[in-house]
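User: Second chain of the day. Same drill as before.
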Amino acid sequence: AVSSEQFGSYIRDSFDHGLAAKYAPNMTTTSPSVQSYSQVTVPKCRHVSLAQEDGCSALGDVLVLSYTVPAFASTAMSTQDVQTLRSKHMNEILRGANAYLDVTFKPTHNIEVLSYCLLEPDSRLHAERGCTQRAYHYLFPLRWLPGGADVANWWLENRREQQDNSSWSEQERQQEGKNEPRRHKRSFGGVSGGEFRARKPPPNPSMRLLKEAMRQAESKELSGEEIEEANADDRRRVASGRFGALGFKERRCWANYAASKLQGLASPSNEPVWKTLERARIVDFTSASSNGDDDQDVILILEFRGEDFIEESVRRIVGTTVAMIHEWLPNDFFELSTRPDIMIETPLAPAGRLYFAGARFHFHELVRGGESLFEDFLGNALDGDLSITWSNEMRRHMLDRVLSAKDDEKRWVEELEQDVCPRIRKELAKIEKSSANEAVPVRTSEAPVEYTLTLHLLRQIISSRQWPETSEARSRVIRDDSHDCLAGSFTVVNPRFRSGILVDASSDFVPPLANELFPDLSYAVFELEKSLAPDRPASSHCAVNCKAQFLPHVDSGRGAGQSLSMIVGLGDYGGGDIVVESMSHDIRYAPLEFDGWRERHWTDTYNGERFSLVWFTPEMDITCT
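Assistant: Same format as last time:
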């Protein structure tokens, strides 16, 4: 599968070729060329988790190219004449670029420059940073719905009304309250954005259920009072700073909808996974048939518009929607699965049906008096109906490929029902049980001898009520249910690390207050680390936790020559496993090494006294005078 970045480089190369064909023969100095370029779908300035899936088709990806060409003799020309000449030159350049793409990459890849917009020479528009809304389409077969075959037949029988509503009688129009042809809503990717109209309603409620399920994935628009409440809650986000009413949307945590390969890059503690989904809806119908197959496969074009999308998130939203419609997952699953304190599997819909449909640049459009970069995307094509033809051909090619794998998709639906959703429901039941605070039996036993001193010192801090307050940053990833003042987390540094540099008065490093408050503990925890893992390099820091149930997160910063953290649990308690990328580990007097900077981890529910120690070495820049 080819990445969008690779396709962008192909277009840049073709543009260089078009520039050379247009200007190089008349130039004696350096040939004109692209100086810089940016692309909407390539995360050069955004987080890597926002990369588009490899192999995802596109109709409406945007590149901004900055290039050098000979200056026009504009002193004798009006502004309009200069603009006309620029447009003429650009048409010639892009025709040359498209010819190069056609010769170089077909039939392996179908790449075409469909439309363009000339920016002012001093424009600072950046395709990636300037994009304020992205849209994807998914070609959804009606056969995935319960009773989908009946709905498909209903659509095929009524297709004529969709294509030409002039067949309706004047009386029918007045009954519908429509004296004029219906105006379509704005959409992306060469679809009308209108709704299918038929004389009779669908034969079953599947379409309605699909719309309702998709609507639950959308971000809520908040009132002024609700915005204040959300801003005061560390576990909620508001899309402040976005254009117009988009700034009133509540961001949702899409960590559970990210590609599994991202792991900690898609942690709920990372801001990039918090995004808004403004619109999830049906924008069009189409149909296709396999080679030699008379049966028409009716397809819904689903549109997802949002601030940005985590890799695989659109396909997982579609997979979740299918499961909800069939009642294999509960109706509130979107609400549960976008909570930052829950990590759970989400269904992944088949690939090959997703394409990038378009982008908006609201702030730039405002400067242009409300006119978008491509005001009429399909009408601004280089050659008349090229864009319409190309978009239809792209969808046809996509459907030809996936229809040849109908059996694979049938197996996907069966696995969704029989394997995936039962596994998810089992996890939901476990989450519900933990939310009900059902008591886990406490395990009591004598601590192994190597833990005795450290556990004694920890219990002494509790009994003397000296446990310090948790820092604001760390408290954001700890579940605050108990409101116990003798609970939380603090850090001590290793007094012997690098010959004591962390506690050396001549260094510019300021040790935590806990080192001064608890000097014996500061030595004891690192002696314990040495005893438990003699071959492990000595850590510089140790997080000391009591009754702290951590939410899903990755540790901030980077490891300095020590890629693995080590954790161990102490005390008399039940439950309290550490979960690393959905794998539970019992750490009671059983140390575990894991990559806390890359792997998402959190604490399972527990009962009783629970201490834990986490040894790690972050990046540090320390100098001594």
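The chain has a mean pLDDT of 86.

User: Great, on to the next one.
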